[in-house]
Input
Amino acid sequence: MNSNSWLEKLKTNKTFGRFYGITLLLFIAFLFWAFFKILTPGNFGNPAALSNYFLSSIIYSVGGCGLYFIVVMGMFDFSIGANIVLSSIVGVIASSHFGYPGLLIGSIVCGTLIGFLNGTIYIRLKIPSMIVTVGLMLIFESVAYFVASGKKQTLDAGLRAFGKAPASIILAGIAFLLTAFILRYTKIGTYCYAIGSNEYVARNMGINVDKYKRIGFILTHFFVGIMAVLTVSYGWSMTAITGMESMGRNFTPLMGTFFGIAFRKYGTPVTAIIIGEFIIAIIFNGFIALGAPTTIQNVVTGAALLIIVTLTSRPEKGAVVK
Output
């Protein structure tokens, strides 16, 4: 047995594979940190800054966990950003009457209902999810503008605990553990993977594909509702936007989902999403420290993401799926 085949077998071992995947991700994070630290040693990457990078990145990690449920089935949802805006606004308005319960329940219930609506319309219309959710994005943006009466909604100063540690970490941690549990120990996770692998075979196996696609959308937006709580708590306010401006909020959570998909073969999708979003936060803040224009930041970040996903998503025989 040559060294390459021995390494491949070791990497697909359940225990070592997870260790290998996490170590690889941490090494990538270290490389980017070291790169920007060398270029801007005075204003980048100290312990306090890294803590801030992580606290901001876990917001997107929660959304990335939600998106994982539909992306792994081969779908996508362009209304994520609009839902973040609408659910944040609903949560802020509810919090003004009911405090923290209003913020949590208002945002999460609003997000979950949008997921149910998206899944139902997608299944009924039987057209690509991207097309359906672009139309719904425009509708949700308008609804958010109407609910907010065109005004910025500001979260009360006494209700911002979820914008900082430890409350933000606790809420995000609950979301991460719930995602891992669903993927590993429930039929939902098993069937999501089965549908994503081969929808035709999944149907022939007796899986109700439409049912689990709807559940996938519901779970996605349930976690987006949690992301909305973290987002508005971190930024303190939310303004309704129209004309597809909310679309920009879709892509950072999606980047984390790509990491989860790429490292799924090591059995670490949730961990990969968390560390992947942290890597993205390091890159963004590194370019800010360099004073690079936003366009350059986007180009290099996108290129780095493509390279990382390409290098880590090559198929391997016997890879760990769950």
Remarks:
- Residues 315-322 have pLDDT under 50 and may be disordered.
- The two ends are 27 Å apart (CA to CA).
- The beta strands are 153-154, 237-238.
- The chain has one domain: 19-36+47-312.
